[in-house]
Design a protein that fits this description.
- With 153 residues, the protein is mostly helical.
- The chain has a single domain, classed as Winged helix-like DNA-binding domain superfamily/Winged helix DNA-binding domain (Arc Repressor Mutant, subunit A), CATH 1.10.10.
- The protein contains six helices and three strands; from the N terminus they run ααβααββαα.
- β2 and β3 form a beta hairpin.
- 12% of the residues are buried.
């Protein structure tokens, strides 16, 4: 069990890095050089929403510590619009600009193309559903460890 658990940890990390490379390769093919793969995924996850920088992290759209830097760069490059919250002037809300919406559409089309190619990679829908269930169990397990220091509340 120990070996399988450790292998799962390594695979999760490696798959995330591979997926970032897939996004980077697509950006490169499209000639998009003013946004990186991590920023593109943040942008993709924002979609039609409007939210604060803190909400990006809270919703799991961004896992790093420099979300403010990435939001600033996306704003500077025209992918995001920022607006101060009318209720709390310290809070800044972000949403996709027209340029951001166009990139979101491109990424969405690219991901849809990947979905249509899954059967050719011998990845069946039921396998993906089972994998997602397993990954959610890992998430609950680790969340419990974070919150309670043990795997039982």
């Amino acid at each position: 069990m120990r070996h399988s658990y450790y292998e799962a940890l390594l695979l999760i990390e490696r798959l995330h890095r591979h997926f970032l490379e897939v996004v980077k390769a697509d950006l490169d093919r499209q000639g998009t050089q003013d946004i990186n793969n991590v920023q593109a995924l943040i942008l993709y996850n924002i979609a039609q929403d409007e939210m604060t920088v803190g909400e990006l992290t809270a919703r799991g759209y961004y896992l790093g510590s420099n979300v403010s830097y990435n939001v600033k760069k996306m704003f500077e490059n025209g992918y995001l619009e920022q607006e101060r919250s009318p209720h709390d002037r310290r809070s800044v809300r972000v949403k996709l600009s027209e340029k951001g919406l166009a990139l979101h559409k491109r990424l969405s089309d690219y991901f849809e193309q990947q979905v249509t190619n899954l059967p050719g990679a011998q990845l069946a829908s039921d396998e993906i559903v089972k994998m997602n269930d397993t990954l959610r169990k890992f998430e609950r397990f680790w969340t419990t460890l974070i919150n309670y220091g043990t795997n039982t509340p």
